[in-house]
Amino acid sequence: MMIAMGLCLVSSALAALGVVLLFFLFVYHAIVFAEEAYLRERFGKGYARYCATVNRFWPSFRGARQDLGPSTGLLLALVLMPWWRTYWLDGRDVAIRRVPWAIGGTIVVLVLYGVLHELKKAGRLHSFLDTAPPSERRRMIRRVL
């Protein structure tokens, strides 16, 4: 599936990419629903409790405030990957002109990390889910699912 999507992207066949993407989504959803039915049958109420606390497709970032390292790494990758791509595709001369943007983005991410780290150490970094009543938390989780 992913190979077909990659080939469609490389060949600029956007119509074929759309068809492959729709097929992939259909197959993926079918697999997920079949696995969920099996797990629900096998584990019963325990699996139902697990499903009530975990999002099906969208990742939960509730733990991101506890460990800032992965979030910082992701942001740095998002900042530096375009520069790296420019370096490899357009050459060193073009990439050198974009170094200030890469350095500026890196500084912003690291300053943000420092601020969030200090807030966490001071105990002032709280998410809405920590302070919301349980009924509101359940409503928000159901909306994401």
List descriptors:
0% strand; flat; 8 helices; mainly alpha; 145 residues
Order of helices and strands: HHHHHHHH
Strand fraction equals under 5%
Structural class: mainly alpha
State mean pLDDT (0 to 100 scale): 79
Radius of gyration: 21 Å
Helical coverage, percent range: over 70%
**Envelope shape:** flat
Distance between the termini: 25 Å
Counting DSSP E segments of at least 2 residues, the number of strands comes to: 0
**How many structural domains can be distinguished in the coordinates?**
2
**Unreliable parts:** none
Q: What characterizes the major β-sheet? A: none
Tally of alpha and pi helices: 8
Describe it for me?
The chain is built from 8 helices and no strands. It is flat, with a radius of gyration of 21 Å. It has 2 domains: 53 residues, no CATH class; 86 residues, no CATH class. The chain starts with a helix and ends with a helix. With 145 residues, it is mostly helical. α4 packs antiparallel against α6.
